[in-house]
Amino acid sequence: MAMLTILSCTAICLTLLAGLSLVFSILLTGVPSLSSSKSEVVDVVALLGLAKLPQHAAIIDLGSGWGALLVALARAFPDATVQGLELSPFPYLVSRLRTQRLSNVVVRWGNFFSSGVESADAIVCYLMPDLMAPVSDLLDQTVKPGACVVTNTFLFRGRVISAARQGTGRGTIALYVWPANH
Question: Each residue of 144-172: pLDDT tens digit?
Fold first, then answer.
């Protein structure tokens, strides 16, 4: 009976910590930890395939969440280095666990606005509308011309889309070749 009580208390504490982690990150960033659907992941991978990335490309997922897209990217582009950047502690830990056996994936905890994305050949993101303008500014200041950027659902305003796929769920998946100006 005592063992059951200890396990129950541990489960409750872990659930509370996970919940607080998610609430904290939403309050800090304004972005909930949503995963891309399977069809959205397929669309992101397909658009990056169209982009003809270099063989040893550096692909960075801004706000990599629970790691589903990282796993798919690592498998689709085995010669690439896939990096996830996540601020929310609980999704970060889950992502680390999901990708620990993938040698071409690195998951870093932190704010992608201060994490350095200048080495990216491709960037993927599934963020919220309020972040798209600041992310656009970040990309203007840091990524090399010709870098590919794929967005899920929320688009960059005033940028030219190179290719798109209409998602079956939430919206459009769009490929930009940065700076994607008119």
Answer: 999 999 999 899 999 999 999 986 667 89
